Structures
1.
Amino acid sequence: MTWTAPRIERTTADGDQLNVPSTADERVLLEGWLRWHRETLLTKCAGLGPAQLARTAAEPSNLTLLGLVRHMAEVERWWFRRSFAGEPIGDLFAGPDDGDEGIDGVDAAHAERDYAAHAERDYAAFRAEVEACEAAVAGRGLDETFQSTTRGRPVSLRWVYLVMIQEYARHNGHADLLRERTDGATGDYPAGE
């Protein structure tokens, strides 16, 4: 049986149904919206097989759902672990050094067309990276800063949360279009999921 991207149950860290509150302290809101966007990306992949995840569905763009998953794993790692937490770790995915952090690596990484092993591994790497990023900032203050090598000035953890929410929002729009072009599915969950 071929691997397919699993259905994502939208939940809080405590296992409750995810419903981002409209009134809460800032940290709860930031974490809630970031979790919502992380899970939204994965819902766009739910039920698709490896070849579908690696398909360029909006030519001439080279975007793929799997490329977006890989890209967001890299962006998570860059901002939360490498930049904010200062962990001396490298990239997750080798690919062109053009600032696309994983997006362009799908075709090259899957040239042998062994989509199943790569898609499952890349998807698991994303999930593991999210967990590692959550651990890296647990208990850290939103006002804590680091010297950004890309911005050339101090940046706060609050800013990182906000930039991650906007990054996911942007790419979740791409994922909406890619999913619809792949199998016609729209909304949070495809038919039959």
Note: The longest helix spans residues 157-183.
2.
Amino acid sequence: MQFDDDARLDTSEVQDQRGRRIPGGRATVGGGVVGLIGLLLALFLGVGPDQLGLSGGDSPGPASSSLAQVQQTCRTGRDANIRDDCRMVAVVNSVQDYWSQEFRRQGAAYTPSPTVFFSGEVATGCGLATSAVGPFYCPGDRKVYLDLGFFNELRTKFGASGGAFAQAYVVAHEYGHHVQDLTGTLGRSQDGMTGADSNSVRTELQADCYAGVWAHHATTTPDESTGRPLITSLTTADVQDGLDAAAAVGDDRIQERFQGRVTPETWTHGSAQQRQQWFQQGFRTGDPARCDTFR
């Protein structure tokens, strides 16, 4: 995956809270066994920790953001081609450019969602969380939360091959949840049910499909400021990295790796095969209307 070297990155779409500590805060999901359980439950769920039953009732509001680091280092597509954090800024820009234009095409208005970079722990509109819950979308403040260290865990803990587009898939999936929030479908996952046919699984698979839809259009969606696509190249190998990441976080793969057995009745995200299938559905068709996993 390559970005236009001369493209200007819009760092206003990212809030950099890395290295910040929450004064007097206590994270609701920590390390060790509790952190592992939280990760198994929440990975890619796309909702805040309070909706997972993991949040205390005394969570402070989100800390104010600082863009100093990304503003200084993430200015152009050239920076995105060499730095992980700048790459994520560029992916956020590209994903939101696509959905903004798609909503406009449908006669609707897209509300942008910032991505918050954090390390260790973070206060959100959905409560306090640590890196153990993995990347997530919080409907309480309509923000995506991402600890960049997760990408290393995606390879070392979950066995994904990694790669730049594997990272992009993660971000695009979370923005799929933002689209669901804006269109009113995200709430269908909050019925507390689990299992291969549950609304929770259908919600996750739809977000995978939406990630594929964005990938289909990634090299043709014009940047809002330049009129040229921000992403200039997306290869078959890139897409394979995304599919590999989707499979690595399938419920069956995670359960087998960490529990030693597969229990479909507890699934919340879908199997490796399902996650790949729905990403491919979006990538092949490029049509959000073909992502109706609830039908």
Note: The chain has one domain: 2-291.
3.
Amino acid sequence: MDYRTLRVRRQPEGLRVVIDRPEADNGINDTLMSELHAVLDLAESDPELRLVVLEGAGPVFCSGMDFADAARGTGDGGALPAARGGQVFYDLLKRFTTTRRIVVSVVDGRVTGGGVGLAAASDFVYATGRSSFALPEALWGLLPACVAPFLVRRVGFQPAYAMTMSTLPVTAERAARMQLVDELTENAEPLVRRLAARLTKIDDSVLADGKRYFARMWLPQEPLERAAVDEFSRLMDSPVVQRRITGFADHRRMPWESAG
């Protein structure tokens, strides 16, 4: 498959996937979400592939929603309406938590917005000390509605709430203490290889059973999903939010620099 937003290479233990949109700070658009689903399809089709390792090109792992793409309304392949876009993103995060494969995010740099969701929904997160994590959505009149259920699932209520309401970045060290990051390391390769070696000793069906079993220990999924997607859609349709997104796309103007 020819990817437009990713670089994908196969290794013996799994797929190495690099988000490759540095010109957009590795922002999430419709094509990126579709291609990540395609990567998971590929991994699930081959029993020898136990891992999907996700990285970001450049100094940003992922900056979340591509506001410029959303403002144009014509993203790569056509932008989705807010409700549908929120549902597609939520479904992607949910699939990270339910796929038969182990998803590892290797972070070296800044992670914001929906990028935090990708990390939180991953099975393991390895990060360098240069990394930081932030949810700036409130500055735009939004909330990280689709990210929050997965972040709360990983770190608990208060850390997720504090990140949302303060919008302040969390250092890699703090992220490790709150368990958003599993390991702090300047070189994730030994950790990935060690994990891969252990996963080959576990039956493929057990990996799927383990993820399914632990999912049942979390709050009922359907009400969370409906609340997340509905809130995202409501806020994205707000004229104030639309004006701020358009201001950024057209003039690179941050929301606090405008009267709106």
Note: Residues 6-186 form a domain with the 2-enoyl-CoA Hydratase; Chain A, domain 1 fold (CATH 3.90.226.10).
